[in-house]
Input
Amino acid sequence: MKISIRLVLFLSFLAVIWGTFLVTTTSSQLTSEKVLENHARVIMANISSYAMEQSQNYLGKAQRATQLTKRLLHSQVLVQENGQALENYFQEQLVTYPDISGIYLGTPDGNFFFVSRNDKHSPGGTRTKIISHENGVRKVHYVWRDAQQNLVFEEDDPQDKYDPRTRPWYQGAMATDGIYWTDPYIFYTSQKPGITISGPTYSAHGQLRGIVGVDIEIDQLSTFIAKLRIGTNGRAFMLNRNRDVVAFYDVDKIKFRQAGKLTSSRLVKIDEFSDKYCRAAFRALGIAQDKNSQILLNRAEYAEFELDGESYQAMFTPFPNPQWPWVIGMYMPENDYLGALKQNQINNYLITFAISVLASFLILFIARSIARPVIGLRRYAEDIAAGDFSAVQDRSLQQGMFREISETARRFDDLMTQLDQSRKRRQQVEESLRRKEDQYASLV
Output
């Protein structure tokens, strides 16, 4: 089976163009995607480290306040029986550490001294709650002060049944005999997410004098996380090991509310979280959990997932300090770092297609320039075989754009001219012989 030279040239040129493009572009694409993917993971790891560092600095304020209070009580610099001195100290702690929402002391006999921020009677004011058992009589007294610590209002609450000894922060500090961090929860009064850090204080003889507790609202962590830039459309969030969502850019979404209730009693679990991207990222990672549904994660893990037709990269990193059993998670669309590369690939395809169209016209022109003289040569050969030398007057073979083909055509034209001249001479000789034969026949 013979193949047209035009088709061969056309397919060969296109094969060279697209073959070169596909080999070089595919190799470059794969290498660039791998480099950018590693770069994205490095960015997420750096952001995660920065977020943990800032979170630890934020939470460390409460720990420092607790340890300072313990030391002052232990050294008798701060006497817990002196209510006024204790209140003044707690007030100063709230001024020193704006992130602390409340500081308190609970004793083994059920006494309780608690100073917290409260705007009920004065903006920027505080509320002091005192539970005492003088002569076996329980008394609950509230004192409200303004921002300058001036007395604004006070009252008693005989209906209050609060007992610090039954609270998790008290029992946790007793059980660990040291600094104890509660799991994040929703504060009842402020309806903000927070944690409590507590620790025991002892007398010089080793007798328990009380448990110091500090409340710190962690909604600021959500504000901090909202400012993290993870690509263009990426988001970060924070989980507790029990799968509670601790921080998110929209702090209202981490509060679990039952239908018909305005207040929240707990934080939302990641499985019931309203943000579908966070849920998808957590499911894609497939983090192991123990029998109590606690997350088991001891190093940074990466995952990939697709949602709504778009690919995402995710990363989960545990806090290195075991006293904060939290995990920072984040996700980022692939298009945030591969979008420009993909668009560049599309542009390359379009440019290559345009080049292919232009090259096709050029190839057809070249093929025509080559094929036309070749076809003429074939016609000449057919004419010679048929004894037809009339085509010698056609000089189109010498009009080609290629020197070699034009030279060959010219020589072929010269050959045709010589053959035509030889034919004419032969015809003249034959005519002369024929006349002589006629003359001879007439003579005979």
User: Anything to note?
Assistant: The chain has a mean pLDDT of 77. The first strand starts at residue 100 and ends at 106. The domain at 29-60+220-336 is CATH 3.30.450.20 (Beta-Lactamase).
